[in-house]
């Protein structure tokens, strides 16, 4: 009898890496046929890519790396290319192609980067290779609003009752961990992050921030509002430069501690909602 194919969406974070751990146990004990897939936007923090490599090496798994291929012709959607793990890393070339065609993503209402660089890529890969597969996504029991019943989709919460704190504690016992503070997780300068997290990311990673800003500046200008620049992509119609200037005189540690006190890093904050694969429960609703 043919085994049901399981596709694990590995985002590069601790939760989805813990899902890798559990699915590997299922593969070994129950003979599950599992494939691990990572969508590389090129905009993740270098430490995320290091963590992905460590997970692959530790568990001895094969990792399918998908990268979006932007078609320059308007009206023609993106496709994908399969790469090796050797290719992953901070590289804004794909994002640059995206913004040259569609303009910069923006908040609210313009988070098409997730759709173009992850949702469409993943859906087209499944359609071409694994139409009947079951997809596993790393959503925990402490994220009930994201646990939506969908055909062909299953969640970490079905295999484990561990919440965010439990999983972070579990990784501390492992020989390696994701050595990254939470505000730098997922796409480093994601538009879904609050401006305080973007400000903290700018202070911690000025070189990456400069490259991101340069990429935004070279994008196609599709703004229909003459009072809003194509660079005003963050909450409150703020730009990278505006955020940097607004927080310039605020001490980095004071900012971090104030955010921690206000529980800006807890479950349900934008650190979860904008993880790689975005709000993963909604990922499969409107793929094109």
Mean pLDDT: 90
Number of strands: 6
Cross-sheet strand order for the largest sheet: 4-3-2-1-5-6
CATH class of the domain at 5-180: Alpha Beta
Quaternary status: single chain
Distance between the termini: 33 Å
Strand content: 5-15%
CATH fold-level assignment of the domain at 5-180:
Rossmann fold
H and E string? EHEHEEHHEEHHHHHH
Radius of gyration, in Å, reads 19 Å
Question: In the CATH classification, which architecture of the domain at 5-180 applies?
Answer: 3-Layer(aba) Sandwich
Number of helices: 10
Question: Major β-sheet, in short?
Answer: 6 strands, mixed
CATH superfamily of the domain at 5-180: HUPs
Residues in helices, as a percent range: 25-40%
- Helix/strand/pairing category: alpha/beta
Show unreliable segments.
271-288
Shape: globular
Structural description of this entry:
With 288 residues, the chain is of the alpha/beta class. The protein has a domain at 5-180: Rossmann fold, CATH 3.40.50. The protein has helices spanning 14-30, 46-59, 93-102, 112-129, 164-172, 195-204, 206-217, 240-246, 252-261, 270-273, and strands at residues 5-9, 33-39, 63-69, 79-83, 134-137, 153-155. The chain has a six-stranded mixed β-sheet with strand order 4-3-2-1-5-6. Strand 1, helix 1 and strand 2 (33-39) form a beta-alpha-beta unit. Helix 6 crosses helix 7 (206-217) and helix 6 runs antiparallel to helix 9 (252-261). The longest helix has 18 residues, at 112-129. The radius of gyration is 19 Å and the shape is globular. 36% of the residues are buried.
């Amino acid at each position: 009898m043919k085994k049901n194919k399981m596709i694990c969406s590995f985002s590069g974070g601790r939760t989805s890496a813990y899902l890798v751990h559990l699915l590997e146990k299922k593969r070994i004990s129950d003979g599950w046929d599992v494939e691990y897939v990572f969508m590389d936007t090129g905009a993740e923090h270098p430490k995320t890519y290091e963590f992905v490599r460590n997970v692959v090496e530790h568990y001895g798994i094969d990792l399918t790396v998908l990268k979006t291929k932007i078609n320059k012709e308007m009206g023609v959607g993106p496709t994908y290319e399969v790469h090796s793990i050797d290719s992953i890393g901070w590289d804004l070339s794909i994002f640059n192609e995206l913004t040259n065609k569609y303009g910069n993503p923006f908040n609210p209402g313009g988070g098409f980067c997730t759709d173009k660089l992850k949702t469409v890529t993943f859906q087209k890969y499944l359609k071409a290779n694994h139409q009947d597969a079951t997809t596993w996504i790393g959503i925990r029991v402490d994220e009930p609003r994201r646990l939506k019943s969908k055909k062909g989709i299953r969640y970490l919460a079905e295999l484990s009752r561990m919440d965010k704190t439990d999983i972070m504690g579990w990784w501390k016992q492992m020989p390696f961990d994701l050595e990254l503070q939470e505000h730098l997780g997922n796409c480093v300068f994601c538009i879904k992050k609050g401006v305080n997290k973007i400000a903290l990311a700018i202070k911690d990673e000025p070189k990456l921030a400069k490259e991101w800003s340069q990429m935004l500046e070279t994008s196609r200008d599709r703004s229909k509002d003459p009072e809003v620049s194509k660079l005003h992509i963050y909450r409150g119609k703020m730009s990278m430069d505006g955020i940097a200037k607004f927080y310039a005189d605020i001490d980095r540690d004071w900012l971090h501690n104030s955010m921690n006190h206000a529980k800006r890093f807890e479950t349900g904050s934008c650190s979860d909602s904008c993880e790689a694969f975005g709000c993963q429960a909604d990922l499969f609703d409107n793929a094109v």
